[in-house]
Amino acid sequence: QVQLVESGGGLVQPGGSLRLSCVVSGTGNIFSINAMGWYRQAPGKERELVAGITRGGITNYADSVKGRFTISRNINKNTVYLQMNSLKPEDTAVYYCNANFNDMIYWGRGTLVTVSS
Questions:
Q1: Cα angle vertex 90, ends 113, 62, to 5°?
Q2: pLDDT of residue 33
Q3: What mean pLDDT comes out for the span 49-59?
Q4: Strand residue runs (E) in 8-103
């Protein structure tokens, strides 16, 4: 059974940083996953892609987070990270981890990030 478990969310002041983690299980290792990504959904808005990483390590980012967020992975820990710097109030959302594995899409339950003074 594939499971994605996010952690690392919380309350942070504007300009601050957070690192989100997504631990993956049930896939063998994350090299077997076609692609993984971080999405977010703010109240009243649609879920949107924040950052993605392919099996080969190619990354892509939403324009709104380029230069501030970095997606990375630790193969040994089966974990994907989202380092978020220079956070803004508009980054407030529930952040979800996503995996494309064996032609199926899997989601974590999300972790809440609140950027407020």
A1: 90
A2: 84
A3: 96
A4: 10-12, 18-25, 35-41, 48-54, 59-61, 69-74, 79-84, 93-101
